[in-house]
Amino acid sequence: MTFRMIAGLALLTAVSAGAVHAAEPRFGEFGDWRVNCSQALNCVMEQFVSGAPLDQIALRRDAGPETAVTIAVWPDVRDERQADGPWRAVMTVDGGRAIEIAAPDIYFDAVDQAFVLSGPAIDSAFIDEVRNGETLRIEVQDGDLKTAHDFSLRGVAASLLFIDEVQGRIDRVDALSARGDLPPADAIALKDIRRFSDLPEAIRDDFGDTGRCAGTDESSLDGDAIVHAISANETLYLLPCGMSGAYNMPYALYLDSFGNLGPMPLPVMLDKGPSTSFFLYNAGYNFETGVLDAFFKGRGLGDCGQLQSWVLTRSVSGSVFVLTEERVQDCDGSEPVAPENWPALWPVQQGQ
């Protein structure tokens, strides 16, 4: 999930009060803001303003105890950016006190083409001002060029509460909105990877021009590339791998077992019998249950293609995925059927 979100995501207007599971992203829309939380419960709330000098803003908070809030803003004219700085930003809520951000707490992200603001000035007191305010003005100075815009804060309070609930911070001391006296929650065993440079060096070449995952867009990692610390000795990586199509994103699995890191094969069923594959599509992973799902769409409607599910299991040689379900529906123009009712390749049905 990059700061600059992909349009067309399904949006939910509320999140239930039940337990949070990091199986799939969570979305919300409140006033002038959209919120997107990744599988690792890292959340971004954003606003788009067409034609403004700063045409997008995003507030980001990662999961984990007492993590900081960062703010990113995008200049409308990007070909005039001076990527070497010096940079400076000033933020005010409803014309109140000025919050100044200078180096090293501001930089230009060349991948997202955004200015990123961080540091101790973006504290709980400032977040309270934003939560209770009506307008946030941000002025960015890039060399001799100054760019500013007044962003609406309509929906910010609900957005911050949404993030607190998704991240399990309600009534905790590190909440953004629903602050209380409870201590911060423990960190979860799932993390995001946002840049190729964050990948283990042993597999970084796989994402180069001639690697097995060549063509992977670096921006696709953020929110879709995850790391699960299975145990003290094993770490699982689920990573976008290759060029994404119109409605299918390829993924690959890697397993670091006792210091040995390499591609992890998945069991699959073919017409002639069982086999293995190093690739899956449109993956979703629930680290709490160990369930891994994939759904290859034969076409955009999703009325045909391939549905697969595995569960993480401990074997004598280490962690493996066991195939629990595989269904295939031909794109032959037949009457649409729910994917759970597609013909099963596994488990084998009686009479097959």
From TrEMBL:
Membrane-spanning segments: none
Protein name from the UniProt record: DUF1176 domain-containing protein
Q: Which residues form a coiled coil?
A: none
Report the domain of life of the source organism.
Bacteria
- Position of the signal peptide: 1-22
Q: Which UniProt keywords apply?
A: Signal
